[in-house]
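Page 37, continued from 36.
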C-alpha cells in the first residue's frame, strides 16, 4: 500500500488489568513494526477533544483513525488491520458473519464484563463499594 493515512490513536483504560495487558500486546506489535500508532490511557488524556467522557471511553475500546472515532469491533478491526500478523483478523472480523459473532462476543459479553469490573474497582478505590 503506498500512501499512509494519519496514524491511529487507540484510547484504552490503563486502570483495567485486562485492557492494559491486551493493549500491551498490541503496542509491542506496533513497536516491532515501527508503526506510528499512539496508545493513550483514557485516565491520562484529553477525552473531550475526542468528544468522549470517561464513562463512554471506559465502556469499550476506541480508535481515532483518519478523523473518525470508531468504537468496539470497528475500532478493533481498525487497530488490527495496521498490525503485522493481525491484519488478516482486521479484515476477517468485518465480514458479515464474523462481524455479527464478534459484535455479540465483544459487545454483549467481553466489553460489558470488563466495564462492570472497572466500575467495581472504582467503587472499591473510593471506599463506597461492597466486598
Amino acid at each position: 500500500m503506498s500512501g499512509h493515512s494519519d496514524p491511529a490513536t487507540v484510547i484504552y483504560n490503563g486502570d483495567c488489568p485486562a485492557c492494559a495487558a491486551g493493549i500491551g500486546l498490541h503496542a509491542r506489535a506496533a513497536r516491532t513494526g515501527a508503526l506510528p500508532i499512539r496508545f493513550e490511557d483514557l485516565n491520562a488524556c484529553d477525552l473531550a477533544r475526542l468528544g468522549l467522557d470517561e464513562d463512554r471511553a471506559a465502556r469499550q475500546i476506541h480508535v481515532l483513525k483518519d478523523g473518525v472515532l470508531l468504537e468496539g469491533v470497528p475500532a478493533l478491526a481498525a487497530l488490527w488491520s495496521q498490525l503485522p500478523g493481525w491484519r488478516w483478523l482486521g479484515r476477517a472480523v468485518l465480514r458479515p458473519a464474523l462481524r455479527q459473532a464478534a459484535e455479540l462476543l465483544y459487545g454483549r459479553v467481553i466489553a460489558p464484563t470488563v466495564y462492570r469490573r472497572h466500575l467495581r474497582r472504582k467503587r472499591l478505590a473510593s471506599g463506597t463499594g461492597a466486598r
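The CA atoms of residues 46 and 52 lie 9 Å apart. Flag for discussion at group meeting. The chain has one domain: 9-126.
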